[in-house]
Design goal:
By secondary structure, this protein is mainly alpha-helical. It is built from 8 helices and 3 strands, in the order ββααβαααααα.
């Protein structure tokens, strides 16, 4: 077992098995480009705080034996109902944490985590009216009634009838 050191934006250092974190293409590329093969070097992660990095590492440890996520066909419809029960429980967090996990998964290039976090947000939106979505995500409506009506007319085609 080879470990590397990851340092969060707030300075906390984590010793991580390379087999666990290999799901991060960002870290994998850093290790290859810098020729790091042992735990002597500390890899700084300036965009990820310790609380979120701890969650990312927990997710990565659980999924370390998963097969790589296949490249998806752009034309294939995306599903949001295929989240495992472990992932669903893992992602029962406040919105701030969920969005921080999305940002971390994107920065670290962890496709599996990015997919499951985005599907979770998609499920939070699915079937809701614009007003319900605004309330869920605390979004201020900055359209006046005339502008809102114009947008609704322009996008009528995508409304379910």
């Amino acid at each position: 077992m080879v470990e590397i050191q990851l340092q969060s934006s707030d300075g906390e250092t984590f010793a991580v098995d390379t087999q666990v974190i290999r799901c991060s293409l960002t870290i994998k590329t850093m290790l290859e480009d810098l020729g790091i093969d042992d735990g002597d070097e500390v890899i700084p992660l300036p965009n990820v705080n310790s609380a979120i990095l701890r969650k990312v590492l927990q997710w990565a440890a659980h999924h370390k034996d998963d097969l790589p996520v296949p490249e998806e066909d752009e034309n294939k419809e995306k599903r949001t109902d295929d989240i495992s029960s472990w992932d669903a429980d893992f992602l029962k967090v406040d919105q701030g944490t969920l969005f921080e996990l999305i940002l971390a998964a994107n920065y670290l290039d962890i496709k599996g985590l990015l997919d499951v976090t985005c599907k979770t947000v998609a499920n939070m939106i699915k079937g809701k009216t614009p007003e319900e979505i605004r309330k869920t995500f605390n979004i201020k409506n900055d359209f006046n009634p005339a502008e809102e009506e114009q947008v609704r007319k322009e996008n009528e085609w995508c409304e379910e009838k």
